[in-house]
């Protein structure tokens, strides 16, 4: 199982403040069946340049690897970033360095305000301009918080992929819509967006059960297979 969106690196953002909590989260992810986890720490262009972010990320990853040691099985980690959209992102060459390790996906988080066509068009342009496949982060959060269920259609009119959070599949009010969207290939990635072991804990296994209960198991596996095909050795 692949967790496409997770905040598990120690001290990088509002995720775990230390390596002890990172290990607990990795342990719990593994227990739920996660084999591969994408470490998508927040990147804010108005606070930090990509180079500084990458240095910090490398240091956090080294700390985590040392703590993981070699004995215990943990999910494999791919390093990435969750980039808050900013006007001009498609011409910011240095953003190229923030695509997910070994796969060409660029995870972009729009700001929590009504989405303009200009913003969506620019996110789409990132694809060609930065040689990547742009992915909108946790679309379900925006649908819920902006109370706008047209967002998926607006994204899918463009060459942009969609990531949804595991919680979309877990809420009674949205689970049916979530699984239907997965079956219709309107969701391309699922992530826990886990930050800790309390309010935002790893929950990919729970989401998988909810998907299986609604007959979406094959669609889930097909999604994972598609991601794996992109993985470079
Ligand atoms: Fe996130």
Overview of this protein structure:
The protein has 233 residues and is α/β, with parallel strands linked by helices. Strand 2, helix 2 and strand 3 form a beta-alpha-beta unit. Helix content is 39%, strand content 17%. The two termini are 18 Å apart. Helix 1 (19-31) crosses helix 2 (50-68). The longest helix is centred in the first third of the chain and has 19 residues, at 50-68. The chain binds fe (ii) ion. Fe (ii) ion (FE2) binds next to loops. Fe (ii) ion is lined by residues 5, 7, 82, 193.
Summarize the structure.
It is built from eight helices and seven strands; from the N terminus they run βαβαββαβααβαβαα. By secondary structure, the protein is α/β, with parallel strands linked by helices.
Question: Which properties best describe this structure?
Answer:
binds fe (ii) ion; seven-stranded parallel sheet; single chain; 233 residues; TIM Barrel; alpha/beta
The name of the CATH topology is: TIM Barrel
Strand-residue proportion: 15-25%
In terms of per-residue confidence, which ranges show pLDDT below 50 for 5 or more consecutive residues?
none
- What ligand species are in this complex? fe (ii) ion
CATH architecture assignment name = Alpha-Beta Barrel
Q: Return the string of H and E elements.
A: EHEHEEHEHHEHEHH
> What separation lies between the terminal Cα atoms?
18 Å
Major sheet attributes? 7 strands, parallel
Name of the CATH homologous superfamily: Metal-dependent hydrolases
Taken from the alpha-carbon principal axes, the silhouette is: globular
Per CATH, the class reads: Alpha Beta
Rounded to an integer in angstroms, the radius of gyration calculated over CA atoms is 17 Å
Number of domains: 1
Give the total of beta strands.
Answer: 7
**In what order do the strands lie side by side in the largest sheet?**
1-2-3-4-5-6-7
Q: Number of helical runs?
A: 8
Q: For the residues shown, what is the average pLDDT?
A: 96
């Amino acid at each position: 199982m692949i967790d496409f969106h997770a905040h598990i690196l120690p001290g990088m953002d509002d995720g775990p403040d230390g390596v002890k909590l990172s290990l607990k989260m990795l342990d719990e992810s593994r227990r739920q069946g996660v084999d591969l986890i994408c470490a998508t720490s927040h990147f804010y262009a108005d606070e930090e340049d990509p180079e500084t972010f990458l240095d910090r990320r490398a240091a956090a990853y080294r700390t985590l690897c040392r703590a993981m040691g070699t004995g215990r099985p943990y999910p494999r980690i791919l390093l990435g970033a969750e980039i808050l959209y900013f006007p001009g992102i498609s011409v910011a060459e240095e953003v190229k360095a923030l695509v997910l390790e070994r796969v060409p996906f660029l995870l972009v988080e729009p700001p929590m305000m009504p989405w303009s066509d200009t913003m969506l068009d620019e996110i789409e342009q990132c694809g060609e301009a930065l040689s990547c496949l742009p992915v909108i982060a946790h679309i379900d959060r925006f649908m819920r918080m902006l109370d706008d269920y047209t967002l998926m259609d607006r994204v899918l009119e463009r060459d942009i992929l969609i990531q949804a959070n595991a919680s979309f599949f877990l809420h009674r009010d949205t689970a049916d819509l979530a699984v239907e969207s997965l079956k219709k290939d309107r969701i391309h990635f699922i992530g826990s967006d886990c930050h800790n072991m309390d309010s935002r804990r790893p929950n990919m296994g729970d989401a998988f059960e909810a998907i299986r209960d609604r007959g979406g198991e094959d669609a889930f596996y097909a999604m994972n297979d598609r991601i794996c095909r992109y993985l470079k050795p």
